[in-house]
């Protein structure tokens, strides 16, 4: 059977059919205009978007009149070419503009603009998902996308229809799509382009009314299958199976999720067109086996797909996968060639018209890229590889390769690393995926109707999921599993160029091989056939061996050939990107440093210290006891010597967190107090705050933030002030108690509390540093750094360097100038 979108033509005798891809590209410009228009429309004010819609509509009318009045074919052809893009732009601009105006209008828009505290009624638009733990309490947090139906402010109730992202504690974990809830909290505006019009930081547990009807049944099926999967025991299979069958990743162990990501297998836990195709084909073929007419069989397959989408959750990527999977499957089953490229463009365009905010969704972008790769590259790669590999092996290799080549430029924007073993891992996992999908879905239904009878199917699907988990762990632990790559747009551009070159080389190799075979084509006798078969399998075996050796050699030698970028030998200080937290280093020697705070993530700290080439920490300072400052501490001693540990806290005695860290690092912790000082490798340090000696805690009633250790450090002719999470009132007291800050210039200020509003303008106003460092998590939910903080730094004349924008960066002096450079790209 020839896959949809391919055409069969005549070929030379003995060479088999010539299968070449057939694509329809006329809708590509329309989809490109839709994407560009949607991306722009959701980022500008609604009134401007509506004006753009009117202008596009006027231009559309002019083109229609030109095509209708002018009989010349050339004019009509040119006018017709722009009709579809203009019509799409009109629809998208109208949709996005009217939604944007509605967001800011009325009582709801006023409440968001004012940052009001409200009590509201909401409808969940998805399942609650886990977020980063609260950096103060260490407790879990959850994010919930919802629509606000009404709210009460200052005793006045108002109707609303506003998309809101709710940030709550563990009491929000059990909320599912379609549930209604009542909760209270403070509203704040989101950035332009965000799907949600506002954030609501919940201040209390929700009162939840579970959904009923079809959505309630779908939730029961999801939660029931996750619970039934636990019958497989505390195994990788039990954690991975709900993800592979229903896209529910919440049950997978964190280390398994990391292994799946590091080996390029994460897509198996997200619903794709392949899952939809497997289900459609299975239901259709079974229906035909029991002699249902073709029409009824197709109806049963589509009904099963609709139920599957409802259970999985009908978000945009799932709908795209369902549409494309059903189109492709119907084309193959009916034996009629289709134009999947045009259908992909049409599908993407319609979804962008309905929801313009999809233009910025990485999940949707990757979904479209993967499908485009399969459509444009899959057939060509298969045809090329099939000339020197058996066709099943060629298909098995071409499918993941095509998807990865298409998605790679986007993936490196999310994580600038290359999974070295992604291709062999996908090839090893692919054969069991259809079986896991079908057996798993059967277990979902049977587990709801007759729970004891689903165990054989559950165990069988679990065996396949266990195989996939084993593949992920095996390749994740192989040498050089992750290779460094340039971050940002430069890395994406380089990856796109590399992907294009790779594709061209493979296709041209296949074409050259085909020409050679055609030139030699002569009828083959039995001995010649056996010889060709032997040589063919020998070629396959040697190709696999050589490919494996090349992958291992590349993984082992990559860091020698292209070493990870690092700082120059004379760097002075560095800020590690550890997410929403602090970790800053001041260099004391060729491979030694003082580390102020350790961030929340041990792996991020360990990677940063490795890239700084630090093997000795002369002093580790924990400014105060919040998890975003101390939780990464154990990584400081991972392959490094920590010679001293100092801390500050509002708690009396030695806090257990610090005592445990001291035991792990094999050093005795010492409390910091005003006036403590020292010199390490020419670097001078002095403690300016809190006002306590080393034997006593901070004054009674002081908050943990205000108990932050403040250090003045001098190195390379520059003065650095590290302020922890000191808030404004305590900062003013610290200034009054620190005469050295009135006599010495502070060149570099570490902005307190990640640039939060409560850090205040007092330090920038008084110190007027040349450079301000802000250690803050990218797209954090706290709104850090606050606009007021950035404004105060601007008024003070300070340049600002932020980890959320630069990643990890370091400071150095070049030609008498203080420079900031990223650990991967200059700034």
Spell out the blueprint of helices and strands.
Elements lengths: L5 E4 L8 E4 L6 H14 L4 H24 L3 H32 L1 H9 L2 E8 L4 E3 L9 E13 L2 E13 L11 E10 L8 E5 L4 E3 L3 H17 L6 H11 L7 H9 L10 H17 L4 H19 L3 H19 L5 H15 L7 H24 L5 H24 L2 E3 L2 H8 L3 H17 L5 H22 L5 E3 L3 H33 L5 H36 L11 E3 L8 E6 L2 E5 L5 H10 L4 E7 L4 H4 L10 E2 L2 E3 L8 H10 L3 E3 L5 E4 L2 E7 L20 E6 L2 E5 L5 H9 L3 H4 L4 E3 L11 H6 L3 E4 L12 H9 L3 E4 H4 L2 E6 L2 E6 L5
Parallel strand pairs: 6-8, 14-15, 15-16, 15-17, 17-18, 22-23, 23-24, 24-25
Antiparallel strand pairs: 1-2, 3-5, 3-7, 4-5, 5-6, 7-8, 7-9, 10-11, 12-13, 12-26, 13-14, 19-20, 20-21, 21-22, 26-27
Helix pairs in contact: 1-3, 1-11, 2-3, 3-11, 5-6, 5-9, 5-15, 6-15, 6-16, 7-16, 8-9, 8-10, 8-15, 9-10, 10-11, 10-12, 11-12, 12-13, 12-17, 13-14, 13-17, 14-16, 15-16
């Amino acid at each position: 059977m020839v896959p949809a979108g391919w055409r069969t033509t005549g070929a030379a005798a003995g060479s088999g059919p010539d299968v070449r891809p057939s694509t329809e590209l006329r809708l590509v410009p329309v989809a490109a205009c839709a994407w560009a228009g949607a991306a722009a429309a959701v980022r500008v004010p609604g009134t401007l978007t509506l004006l753009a819609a009117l202008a596009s509509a006027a231009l559309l009318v002019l083109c229609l009149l030109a095509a209708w009045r002018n009989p010349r074919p050339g004019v009509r052809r040119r006018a017709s070419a722009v009709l579809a893009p203009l019509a799409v732009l009109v629809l998208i601009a109208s949709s996005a503009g009217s939604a944007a105006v509605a967001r800011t209008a009325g009582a709801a828009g006023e409440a968001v603009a004012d940052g009001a505290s409200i009590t509201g009624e909401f409808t969940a638009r998805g399942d609650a998902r886990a977020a980063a733990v609260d950096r103060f309490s260490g407790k879990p947090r959850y994010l919930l996308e919802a629509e606000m139906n009404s709210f009460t402010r200052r005793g006045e109730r108002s109707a609303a229809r506003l998309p809101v992202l709710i940030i709550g504690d563990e009491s929000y974990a059990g909320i599912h799509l379609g549930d209604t809830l009542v909760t209270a909290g403070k509203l704040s505006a989101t950035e332009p382009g965000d799907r949600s019009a506002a954030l609501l930081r919940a201040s209390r547990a929700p009162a939840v009314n579970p959904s009923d009807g079809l959505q309630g049944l779908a939730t029961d099926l999801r939660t029931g299958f996750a619970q039934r999967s636990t019958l497989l025991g505390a195994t990788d299979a039990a954690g991975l199976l709900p993800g592979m069958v229903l896209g529910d990743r919440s049950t997978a162990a964190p280390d398994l999720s990391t292994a799946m990501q590091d080996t390029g297998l994460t897509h198996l836990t997200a619903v794709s067109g392949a899952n939809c195709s497997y289900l459609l084909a299975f239901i259709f073929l079974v229906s035909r086996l029991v002699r249902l007419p073709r029409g009824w069989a197709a109806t049963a397959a589509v009904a099963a797909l609709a139920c599957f989408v409802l259970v999985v959750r009908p978000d945009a990527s799932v709908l795209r996968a369902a549409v494309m999977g059903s189109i492709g499957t119907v084309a193959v089953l009916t034996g009629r060639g289709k134009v999947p490229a045009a259908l992909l463009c049409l599908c993407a365009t319609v979804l962008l018209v309905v929801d313009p905010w999809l233009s910025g969704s990485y999940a949707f972008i990757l979904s479209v890229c993967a499908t485009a790769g399969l459509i444009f590259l899959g057939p060509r790669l298969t045809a090329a590889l099939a000339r020197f590999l058996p066709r099943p092996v060629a298909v098995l290799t071409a499918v993941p390769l095509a998807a990865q080549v298409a998605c790679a430029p986007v993936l490196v924007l999310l994580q600038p690393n290359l999974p070295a073993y992604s291709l062999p891992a996908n090839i090893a996992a692919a054969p069991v995926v259809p079986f896991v999908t079908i057996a798993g879905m059967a277990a979902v239904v049977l587990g709801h109707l007759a729970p004891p009878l689903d165990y054989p199917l559950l165990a069988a699907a679990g065996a396949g999921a266990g195989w996939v988990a084993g593949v992920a762990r095996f390749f994740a632990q192989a040498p050089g599993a992750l290779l460094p790559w340039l971050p940002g747009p430069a890395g994406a551009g380089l990856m796109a160029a590399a992907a294009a070159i790779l594709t061209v080389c493979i296709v041209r190799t296949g074409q050259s091989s085909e020409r050679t075979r055609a030139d030699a084509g002569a009828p083959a006798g039995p001995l010649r056939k056996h010889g060709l078969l032997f040589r063919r399998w020998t070629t396959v075996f040697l190709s696999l061996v050589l490919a494996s050796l090349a992958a291992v050699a590349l993984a082992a030698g990559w860091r020698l050939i292209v070493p990870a970028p690092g700082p120059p030998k004379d760097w002075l200080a560095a800020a590690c990107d550890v997410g929403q937290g602090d970790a800053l280093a001041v260099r004391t020697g060729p491979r030694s440093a003082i580390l102020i705070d350790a961030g929340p993530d041990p792996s991020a700290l360990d990677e940063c210290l490795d890239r700084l080439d630090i093997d000795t920490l002369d002093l580790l300072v924990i400014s105060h006891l919040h998890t975003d400052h101390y939780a990464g501490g154990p990584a400081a001693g991972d392959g490094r010597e920590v010679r001293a540990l100092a801390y500050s806290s509002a708690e009396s005695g030695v806090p257990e967190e610090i005592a445990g860290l001291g035991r792990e690092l094999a050093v005795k912790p010492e409390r910091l107090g005003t006036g403590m000082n020292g010199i390490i490798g020419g670097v001078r340090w002095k403690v300016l705050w809190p006002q306590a000696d080393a034997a006593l805690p901070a004054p009674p009633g002081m908050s943990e933030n205000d108990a932050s250790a403040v250090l003045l450090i001098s190195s390379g002719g520059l003065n650095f002030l590290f302020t922890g999470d000191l808030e404004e009132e305590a900062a003013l007291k610290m200034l009054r108690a620190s005469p050295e800050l009135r006599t010495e210039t502070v060149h570099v200020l570490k902005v307190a509390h990640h640039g939060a509003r409560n850090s205040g303008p007092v330090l920038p106003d008084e110190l007027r540093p040349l450079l301000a460092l802000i250690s803050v998590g990218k797209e954090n939910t706290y709104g850090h750094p606050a606009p007021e903080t950035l404004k105060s730094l601007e008024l003070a004349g300070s340049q600002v360097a932020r980890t959320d924008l630069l990643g990890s960066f370091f400071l150095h002096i070049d030609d008498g100038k203080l420079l900031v450079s990223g650990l991967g790209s200059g700034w």
